[in-house]
Design a protein that fits this description.
Number of strands: 0
Order of helices and strands: HHHHHHH
Helix content: over 70%
Shape: globular
Largest sheet: none
Distance between the termini: 34 Å
Amino acid sequence: MSDDLRHVGRVLDEAHSLLVSEQTRLKEQYGSTRSDDSVAGGPQQTLQGIHALAGSVGDTLKRISLAVGFKALGLDVRAERAMVTARMRPVSLPAGAERMARPLGEDTVRALEMIRDLGFFPAEVAVEIDVVLAAPEATYPPADWAAYDRDRASRAGQR
C-alpha cells in the first residue's frame, strides 16, 4: 500500500469521525423532528444532510479499505476496480451540506475542508465544497423548483 493511499485513508477517517461527531451534536440540538419538514436549513433537512455527508465519507472509506485488502491479497485487478469505485464522486458530498442550517458547525466545515484539500475526488467536488462553504444559507430543497431546474440545466451545459 502506498503512502498516498494511507494518507487518504487517514484523512477520510478523521473527516468521517468529525461528521459523526457533528451528527451526534445536531441530534441532541434538534431532538426529534417532523418528517414533513421540507424547508432548506430546517431541523429535519439539517439532520438528513449531516447523515448523508457522514454516510458518503464512510462509504468511500470502506471502498478504499476494500481496495487495500484486495491489493494485500494479491488480487490486483479487483483492487484496481475497487479503487476506481472509491474515487467516484460521492453521492452526497457536498450535497448533504446544501440542506444544512447555517452557519455550518465547526466539525462539518473542518471535515469538508479536509476532503477538499485532499485532492482524491474529481476536481469539481472541491469547487462544489467551496460553493457550499460560502453559501450564506441552505439551498436544498429549493423554494422555487423551476428556478432550481433551470440552474442545474445551465450548469450541466457548461461542463
